[in-house]
Amino acid sequence: DTALMIEAEVNAKGGVKGPDGRLHPVKLVIYDDGSDETKAVLAAKKLIDEDRVTAIVGTTLSGTSLAILDTVQKAEVPLVSCAAAIKIVEPAAERKWVFKTPQSDHLIVGVLVDYLKARGLAKVAWLGVDYAFGQLGWIEFEKGAQKAGLTIVASEKFGQKDVDMTPQLTRVKAAGPQATVIWSIPPSASIATKNYADLGVAGPLFQSHGVGNKRYVELAGAASNGVLFPAGKLLVAEQLADSDPQKPVLLAYARDFEAKYGPRNTFGGHAWDAVQLVLRAMEKAGPDRAKVRSAIEGTRNFVGITGIFDFSATDHNGLDRRAVTMTQIVEGQWRPAR
Length: 338
Fold this sequence. Notes:
By secondary structure, the chain is an alpha/beta fold. It has 12 helices and 14 strands. It has helices at 2-12, 37-49, 62-67, 69-75, 105-118, 132-148, 166-174, 188-199, 214-220, 247-260, 266-285, 289-297, and strands at 16-17, 23-24, 56-57, 79-81, 98-100, 123-129, 151-158, 179-183, 205-207, 228-231, 302-303, 308-309, 325-330, 333-336. The strands form 5 sheets. Strands 7-6-8-9 form a 4-stranded parallel β-sheet, with helices on both faces. It has a 3-stranded parallel β-sheet with strand order 3-4-5. Helix 8 (188-199) links the parallel strand 8 (179-183) and strand 9 (205-207). Helix 5 packs across helix 6 (132-148), helix 7 (166-174) packs across helix 8 and helix 11 (266-285) packs across helix 12 (289-297). The longest helix is centred in the last third of the chain and has 20 residues, at 266-285.
């Protein structure tokens, strides 16, 4: 929806102004990979070989993004992923053609671990979804917790399509954590939240940035009240200080998106950043893939929805801690966490 909104806005003005000074209409080609790695690879190959696109935006899952890396690298086509795992863009020397817009799991975990430590929540339990997002998140959390001096008293996992996490959370409860971290996306993140509340597990519940949408709250219901998670600023845009350089961009996107499609979410913001990065690069480089890649890598101080991007040859995510804020759900609404 976000990508189509941008396409309509740009083409209403005649298109993208290229280095030749002329306006060129933008054409989006969209395929649904069904969250399946094989379908993602086939779609990427079709975009490259048949549609002959200048660049690819996507995918939204870490597993499918990792699956298409080899394809885009060999074809030398710029890819701007909308998925979290740091492995998508690191090491940058081996990911020359790959960039991404969401905050990396490494960055998100760093903010979360510091928040836990600052509040004296030293005994923590982990419950993660058993596919790339959860697996890679666990790797980062384990490292971050150890560095911060936190003790992981329980580590459990569940399947992406599981409909009851009560057994795992029963073991979590028995371990006596001061706080619990659940690392997933809806609907499983919502199911686990309800199970957590039903069991009466002590201590605050933390989620990942994968719950940055209203669907999580709708599915979890009252159980989501009080849940904390690190995410971008889009969810709490109206409550930011007027001096925050992202605030005008965030408010404009939220207004435009919600007028057409309904409640904002951080995932649409990742797509806004990715499409805008490609279009800005094409203004400088035209449709040439190699020049577009170089232009994206040379992007500095781009104020986006996810954060303020400063890419370089060694950093293909371009974000720092300014891109993350701790958020809490209060009576179904997002609020900056105290």
